[in-house]
């Protein structure tokens, strides 16, 4: 079984002085989260679609899904997120395990709620390679030179750009394997995690690369909202 897991647990602190988390801000007349959920609802491979959000925003999320998506919105399960990204993912796995059970074929396609421009092709390839390899991550080649600094003051190294990639989402994993690997981490290992793919890397497991898109951008800053509006306008005008 394949599950879509949309991570909407952030509070959007980098968006500035706004009255709500960024996933609930509007672009093109609809909350960002709704645009993202719509992309997953277009795909018929999912057993269930799960959205994880801060506790105080659960009812608001349910109301938005009903308002903008009608009956389709009522099929989306809304759960409490965790205090970290990976704890939020673990909450989704706990729900799946309780309701459906976990086996080697249980796959979760995890995605940032504030990346509303993912495509059907990206979701399709995440499912395909997730089932084939057990873990995959959506990336694009780095276009800028990457500079590595140990102390944040001087350059330590300049990696070969041809081997560097910028991570996006979705990230897709065998749920059972991800749970086992996460539970085997030390507290020190958990502290250095940035995303779920790193769990596999730390434990020596391979993560397959899925080709992303430059416009599969994450809305983080106020400037990104203006870019997102422009992208939506281009899509409407067929550009």
UniProtKB/TrEMBL annotation:
CDD domains, per database record = CDP-ME_synthetase (cd02516)
* Chain residues that bind CTP: 7-10, 82-88, 113
Q: Which UniProt keywords apply?
A: Cell wall biogenesis/degradation, Nucleotidyltransferase, Teichoic acid biosynthesis, Transferase
What InterPro entries does UniProt report for this protein, alphabetically? IspD/TarI, IspD/TarI_cytidylyltransf_bact, ISPD_synthase_CS, Nucleotide-diphossugar_trans, TarI
Annotated site residue numbers, Transition state stabilizer:
14, 22
Which reactions fall under this protein's catalytic activity? D-ribitol 5-phosphate + CTP + H(+) = CDP-L-ribitol + diphosphate
MF annotations from Gene Ontology: nucleotidyltransferase activity
**Enzyme nomenclature, EC number:** 2.7.7.40
Which residues are tagged with the site Positions ribitol 5-phosphate for the nucleophilic attack?
A: 161, 218
Query: What is its biological role?
Result: Catalyzes the transfer of the cytidylyl group of CTP to D-ribitol 5-phosphate.
Query: PANTHER family per the record?
Result: 2-C-METHYL-D-ERYTHRITOL 4-PHOSPHATE CYTIDYLYLTRANSFERASE, CHLOROPLASTIC, RIBITOL-5-PHOSPHATE CYTIDYLYLTRANSFERASE
**UniProt xrefs under HAMAP family:** TarI
Q: What is this protein called?
A: Ribitol-5-phosphate cytidylyltransferase
